[in-house]
Amino acid sequence: MTDSFYVIVNPTSGMGRAKRNWKKIHALLQQYELEFDFKFSEYSKHETELTKEAIKNGYRKIISIGGDGTLFNILNGVMSQEYINPIDISIGVIPIGTGNDWTRSHKVPRNFEKAIQIIKEGKTVQQDVGYIELLNENKSAYFNILAGSGFVGHVVHKTTKIKKIGPLSFALGTLLSLAGHKLNTLKIHINDEIINTKSLLTIVGNLRYTGGGMQLTKNPNSEDGLLDVTIAQHINKPTIIGNIFNLFNGKIVNHRLVSNYKADKLRIELDDNTDSFVIADGEMLGKGGYQVELIPLAVTYIVPK
What we know:
Number of helices: 10
Radius of gyration: 19 Å
Shape: globular
Number of strands: 15
Number of domains: 2
Oligomer: single chain
CATH architecture of the largest domain: Sandwich
């Protein structure tokens, strides 16, 4: 086992900012006397493979340089490896992504030096982790922030195509999604209750922010052992247009057509043939029904004091 950090750099994060700023970050890591080795990811989900390889080779401290998608892939590497208990791996983050919602929720600054100072100080917290499985496809994933379907899935679908424009891509993706999205007929199993409804979106949250600052869950707490669930029922497009700003400031969860729950698991089945994109931490998983469960205090992160 080694005491060095293993630094995983996604060179495409932040429209190439990670690659352009690597020399500066490398110098700062040395300036703060952090012992480290590093590797650039080279293709989609490569960070998951690099994480597993690092843990196999004795690394127990990992630094993610990228956005929420990079951290999502590292988390899936930590949770799916079979060498040690995932809680024994510490993960620090230097944010250079489009959304940076994990670092926004944990108040990690985007300033490189300040983020490295936090890693140097080494304060850690244990965080709950969500696990999502698609019902009609052989796909599953662990997530830090949020999983969901419906309108939010269409936003991610649109945003993926225009991500190169930066943080504004989430807002533009929201507007573009208004034209094509339809309500889905769902059967939702939650807390021994079955809800049959037409839903605009269903969100399963673990942290406060998603989609570059949107606040779509009411009382998320990544250490309480429960998912924060938001179900928006029977909301039409004019209502959504009138509440665009409420998607970002958190007030949407108080709308009369929005229901909020706390649960450790849920299952969602589609009762029609309409498409419903399913996402986790801003990454597209697939379409259709799914089930989610929470794994309490499953992973360790380095956070500000």
